[in-house]
Structure formats: C-alpha cells, structure tokens
C-alpha cells in the first residue's frame, strides 16, 4: 500500500531539505509554527526514518536530530559516519567520511552513533573566537 504524501509531510520534508544541518523536532516546530502540531512532526519524522528519507542522530545533549539521507533505502541505512555539533552556533553536521568498525566475530552492528563536539570552521575562524 502506497503512503500518502500530505501537505504536512511535504512541509516537514521541505524544511529538512532546506536546512543546512540536522534539525531537532523543536527546531522544526519553531520553523513551522502552528501549521503543524508537535505529535504530527514526531510521527512524520519517524515515518521518514523508516522510509529511508532521514536518519536519526542522538546528540550529546540527549536530543534527537534528523538529517536527510543520501543513498539510503527503507531496508538499508548506511550511516557509519560521525556527526559534529558546534558548541558556539549549535549546528549539527554529518561528517563525510564513512567509518568502518571491526566487530568481533559473531557480532552484528545495527546502529552506529559517533558524535563529536567542538567548534565548526565558521565559528573557529570568527574574530571573537580568535580573541580568546
């Protein structure tokens, strides 16, 4: 059975695609305002995860963030990359290098959550950061 593409789903998807970084449900809620309620955003984001449209990132702040998938499908997510959160501007990015984690024989990986905090290129190059 095909899933319906509603106006609400399209609003959320457009917001994710236009974002320059991974976003939390809270960020989407602020951006969309009263056009979409919190429970609907949560349900749509989880649906997008199941469909291979976005991947979920557990941040070092305990919040989940969502980023558009590249080359993923419903059955095969490939996200063995680190995520980076800037301590200054708060932007969360998927870093481009895939990581290979060698597990002991008989172990099977289901999830990879690599997370790094620090200062992004823009913030570490800012004059305010250089003065410290």
UniProtKB/TrEMBL annotation:
SUPFAM superfamilies, per the entry: Winged helix' DNA-binding domain
Binding positions for Zn(2+) per the UniProt entry: 86, 89, 120, 123
MF annotations from Gene Ontology: DNA-binding transcription factor activity; transcription cis-regulatory region binding; zinc ion binding
Cofactor note: Binds 1 zinc ion per subunit.
A Pfam cross-reference name: FUR
One Gene Ontology biological process: regulation of secondary metabolite biosynthetic process
The protein's name in its UniProt record: Transcriptional regulator
PANTHER family for this protein: FERRIC UPTAKE REGULATION PROTEIN, ZINC UPTAKE REGULATION PROTEIN
Cofactors named for this entry: Zn(2+)
Alphabetical keyword list: Metal-binding, Zinc
